[in-house]
Specification:
alpha+beta, 4-stranded mixed sheet, 194 residues
């Protein structure tokens, strides 16, 4: 389920895309799913909305079913080059301006615990960013580039960057990712509905 449907030719036959918004009441019957997996959505939803979303997830999960949340946290990236470090620092300064109050991936386990879930597990993994990391690294590079690009307008206003200067900085950061073997922290939290 996503806001935009983007079918792929390699989707399995039993895979179905559904257009929807987790910020709206989900239109599934109680106990529809044995497993719910959600990833990289924390930055799009204000922190105060997450308890309601998790409550909806619980309603549509079968007893004994699992909910898994995967997202970024507040951990620094590993093996940053100087331009990447500068851009990430800028992004951290601008996040309160650019976005509403966001929940960190490091707090996702608290959401599941407060919702009454059991058998809670949490870990952080570091994913490669850049071509050096193969397909996963290339996908993460696309995600991180888009995230940094989303701060362009506010960077021009707040830091008085010219658009060309921002583009040069971003291109320089992207080149560093393969050179320094950048790694991005991702939290994985999962728990079971009693």
């Amino acid at each position: 389920m996503d806001l935009e449907l983007a079918p792929r030719p390699d989707m399995p036959a039993n895979y179905r895309l559904i257009k929807g918004d987790i910020r709206q009441r989900l239109q599934f019957s109680r106990g529809t799913f044995d497993f719910i997996h959600q990833r990289f959505v924390l930055g799009s939803v204000p922190a105060q909305e997450w308890p309601v979303i998790i409550s909806h997830f619980l309603q549509i999960t079968t007893p004994g079913g699992w909910i898994e949340l995967v997202d970024t946290g507040s951990e620094p990236l590993k093996s940053m080059g100087p331009m990447t470090a500068q851009m990430m620092d800028n992004m951290a300064q601008l996040a309160p301006i650019q976005r509403n109050d966001m929940l960190s991936g490091s707090k996702m386990d608290d959401l599941l615990k407060r919702a009454g879930m059991i058998n809670l597990h949490k870990k952080v993994v570091y994913l490669p960013v850049g071509k050096w990391g193969g397909r996963m690294g290339s996908l993460m590079a696309t995600n991180l580039t888009a995230a940094l690009q989303s701060f362009k307008d506010v960077s021009m206003t707040y830091f008085h960057y010219a658009p060309e200067y921002f583009d040069i900085c971003l291109a320089s950061a992207v080149r560093e990712w393969d050179e320094y073997h950048l790694q991005f922290p991702v939290y994985i939290c999962f728990a079971q509905k009693p």
